[in-house]
Amino acid sequence: MSSTRTRAMTKRLFYFLVLMASLAVGSFAGPRDFTTVLYNADRDFNGVFIYTIVQDDDGFLWIGSDDGLYRFDGKEMLNLNKKDSAINSLITASTISNDGHVYLGYIQGGISIVEHGRYRKIVSREELPNRIEALKVDDADILWGLTRNQGMVRIENDSVTRYQLPILEELISTDFIVAGNKIFVSTNQGVLEFRIKDGELIPSQFVGGTIGFQANALYLDKDDKNLLWIGTNDGLFRYQINTQKIKLVEGFPDHVRISSISEDDLNTLWVGTFNHGLVEVDLIDGEVDALTYFNTASGFESNEIGEVYVDNENEVWVGTFGRGLVQLNRAYFHHYELYRTINVEGVHSLSNFRDDELLLATDNGLVHVYHKPQRDSLIFDKYQFTTDYSFTCLAVRGEEIWAGTKNKGVVKIDLEAEKVKRVFLDPLDPVQRHLIRDIQFDIEGNIWVSAAGNGVYHLSPEGELLKQYNTRNGFYHNEIFSIFPDRAGNIWFGSHATGLALLQPGEEMKFLTKDGIFPAFDINSIIQDNLGIIWITTAGSGIYSFDGENFKQYTVDEGLLSNYCNAAMVDNIGQIWVGHRLGISLIQPEYDLIRIFNHPSELGETESELNSVVKDVHGNVFFGNPYGITKVNLPHFNFPIIDRETHIKDVRLFFNDVDLLRFTSSDKIDNILPADLTFEHGDNHLSFDFVSINLRKPDAIYYQYTLDGYDRTWSRIDKANSATYTNLDPGTYTFKVKESDHPDHWNDTNYASMTFTIKPPYWRTWWFYLLQITGILLVLYITFILSARLKSQFATRLMVYVSLFILFEYVHTEVEPYLESFTGETPIFQVGTNLLLALVLLPVEIRLSSYLKTRATRKEKIAAAMNKISN
User: For this UniProt entry, which residues form the secretion signal (predicted)?
Assistant: First the structure.
């Protein structure tokens, strides 16, 4: 079969696998790098209209909907409605205090606080009979509330102050922000500014440029506390509080009605609208850089958004009007297929270009990767004047572009003039149809070029040949696959067959593999991480790290996907990403952990080209593939190891939910456990429900647990979030549970615990023991008294033996459970135990029998003497 037909079949197979992978993904793949999850009745959530979303310090998500209040831990949607003592089941506002309490405002008025799960009224509906539109806590931990048209309320230490301002009673208020000593209120006629002075609210002015606009949402920027974002029925405005300058954000549709604004830690605004869905607004220095729309046209659930909230782990939650709750997830990977779109294959090298662009070296020329202003999707443009070149590597410095080719040596590319200029490495070799394997700039600006079969060329910044390294002048090999100038000025060389070499400033070349210092022979790529550690990928020996003194090897035995490592890149938090032929490995050196990703539904294309990888200015990592590129989306953000808090949610008896108030003297409040649970001896079948909150991937958490007083070690590692213990003996126990993102990483000090007691039965209590001992002593005493009066020695002995039998059985019954814990139930041990106990009691029986015999003899003598006297 010809190579052309083979390649065609390979392409068809690749497209089929990509199609199958896309069908296998059940959730909607939205613009750029997101998927969505819809919460509805299938997920135990019956809310349709979402009014408010907030997350507490423990990680629980609180959702106010038309079906009441829900609390979500990633696993369970717990409905907390009016029967749980809330003022009203429809909650329209919520916020979190600085000490972690949840405050709730209601559609018919009133404010309450959730303390450890219990609702407590702060302001009753009778005191504040107007819809609560917004609640906010300022830096002094003072709670502020805004009503629709009856002013504001201030709550400090449960002391309530109402501000019934005439101007607010004439308008319809929707939202507010506390900014220092100012409060901004959005209304149906614009944004009002108030000053806080001596506990009073003093109306100041309307914010210029908003008068007459229906203002719906306000948001104070995370990074710039003088920047206020204003959402109106006519678009989004940015307002500088200190300069009082206002500007309309361009790019939004006409008459877009903004309903909510939030912000994540990636300098991105999330804007909900009443009529155009969700908008992602990327910012650079407070200015809008790109807009991405999530609406029904792009497959999003709804265009009518009521609330947008970004949680503690930067997950975006969208409350819709009519379609329930939507969770917006950042995808971990994104594959860009280039063959069908721009007829490009073989992405052999990638390089950063300009501020936020990429260049790709491919079999079909040079490709420019960028995004247009206010559009967030990547655009791939092929430079048509380069299509005659099959590029293998790139080195970019500003607008200066050096490229290696498969059969035309080194070229310099002038994008402005649209010209490709040949660079002749050796003046004595005018043909130079070399295959170029690598090009690198060192810290002094010099250029290093690896040419197949010709070793390495060292050029000046102007391109003049300084020195050639090949076997003719003592170099160790002519086939150098990787060159790496490190930050200390050293030059590393990696070859196939002869391994690693190092050139240090002012020193002779060191042949590390040849001299037995480095064990691997086939080097593919070399990089340096944030700590200065050198990482070396190999073909067949895994990847090595070098800390300046020692080499450490990572192979499939340590968890690597493959020992054949084509490329590597370090991300912003020091994690190492390794590309293989069949997937990607992630090395997390801080924890000595390795994770692998090799499913087509994740990666789109699993094969990484040799030494084809780059990290862009945002921290994304891109791997070059045979038919496109694979993006690792914000790896520093998406893949860190996080130690989360674990919560013990409930204790069940015999698998059934019970009211734990029956087993405690303290209060048990809405699924929060009391501190002193005490169970009867028969209630000894307990199930513990626990959760570590990972709202993004709740099924990715591993657990271990133990019961002090019962278990000797931690349980096996499992993802199940419940544990059951049966037939627990009376005593005091402590249940402990811990979590982890990775089965090989555990923090033994980060666990949740609860202590409880199982009471003994009445026959194991001290008073019953005392009663038993008293009974036995009474039997012995009666035996002693009666033995002195009975004339029948047989009856006396019978009573003695009955007493001894009772004593024997009592001691045996009490001792047997303890002995069985050591000897088990083996018959020979039980016989030996009984014999030992009999031998212990034998002296008692002998002495008692001797005593009775002596007393009987004495009694006979006394009787004989009395008879003699009477005679």
Answer: 1-29
Domain boundary, last residue among 311, 332, 353: 332
Cα 711 from Cα 714, distance rounded (Å): 7
383 shares a domain with 234: no
What DSSP letter does each residue of 690-737 carry, written as one string? Answer: EEE--SS-GGG-EEEEEEETT-SSPPPPBS--EEEE-SPPSEEEEEEE
Residue bearing tokens 């009663």:
771
Distance (Å, whole) CA 435 – CA 718: 52
Segment 582-598 shows an average pLDDT of 95
d(CA 478, CA 496): 10
**Looking at the domain assignment, is residue 595 inside a domain?**
no
Of 474, 509, 466, 469, the C-alpha closest to 490 is 509
Tell whether 345 and 327 lie within a shared domain.
no
Number of Cβ within 10 Å of residue 164's Cβ equals: 11
Rounded CA separation 259/230 (Å) = 10
Which long-range contacts (C-beta less than 8 Å, at least 24 apart) are formed by 96-100? 96/54, 96/55, 96/56, 96/57, 96/137, 97/137, 97/141, 97/143, 98/137, 98/141, 99/141, 100/56, 100/57, 100/58
Which sign does the torsion angle of CA 454, 455, 460, 465 carry? negative
Side chain identity, residue 359: L
- pLDDT tens track for 180-238: 999 999 999 999 999 999 889 999 899 989 999 999 999 999 989 999 999 999 999 99
Per the CB < 8 A criterion, the answer to whether 535 and 543 are in contact is yes
Query: Rounded CA gap, 309 and 96, in Å?
Result: 13
Q: DSSP of 197-250, one letter per residue?
A: ETTEEEEEEEPTT-TTS-EEEEEE-SS-TTEEEEEETTEEEEEETTTTEEEEPT
End-to-end CA distance of the chain: 138
DSSP character at residue 498: S
Q: What is the mean pLDDT of the chain?
A: 87
* 239-278: pLDDT as tens digits: 999 999 999 998 888 889 999 999 999 889 999 999 999 9
Structure token digits, residue 557: 């035995």
**How long is the chain?**
871
Measured over the CA atoms of residue 717, residue 721, residue 725 and residue 730, the dihedral's sign is: positive
Long-range contacts of 164-171 (CB under 8 A, 24+ apart): 165/201, 165/203, 167/192, 167/203, 168/192
Rounded distance, CA 58 to CA 343, Å? 51
Report phi then psi at 573, rounded to 5.
-115, 20
Spatial CB neighbours of 745, under 8 Å, sequence gap ≥ 6: 591, 593, 641
Distance CA 834, CA 828 (A): 10
Whether the CB-CB separation of 563 and 556 falls below 8 Å is answered with: yes
> Could you tell me if 491 and 441 are in contact, meaning their C-beta atoms sit under 8 angstroms apart?
no
Tell which residue, 312, 315, 317, 367, has the closest CA to residue 339: 367
Residue 311 sits at φ, ψ, to 5 deg, of: -85, -175
CA distance to 375, 376, 556, per residue, from 334 (Å): 17, 14, 26
- Return the bridge partners of 78, or none: 71
> End of a domain among 523, 538, 566?
566
Location of structure tokens 């593999």: 513
Domain assignment present for 294: yes
Beta bridge partners, 318, equal 308, 326
The answer to whether residues 327 and 374 belong to one domain is no
Letter for the amino acid at 664? T
**DSSP single-letter state for residue 716:** P
In the structure encoding, which two tokens stand for residue 725, read together?
């213990």
CA 458 to chain centre: 47
Residue type, 467: K
The label of the residue with tokens 């290696």 reads 404
Residue type, 483: I
The residue range of the domain holding 837 is: 768-870
- pTM of the predicted model as reported, rounded to 2 decimal places: 0.81
- Which residues are registered as beta bridge partners of 475? none
pLDDT of residue 760: 86
Convert the pLDDT of each residue in 299-344 to its tens digit.
Answer: 899 999 999 999 998 999 999 999 999 999 888 999 999 999 999 9
Q: Is the dihedral of CA 604, 608, 612, 616 positive or negative?
A: positive
Q: Are 58 and 693 in contact (CB under 8 A)?
A: yes
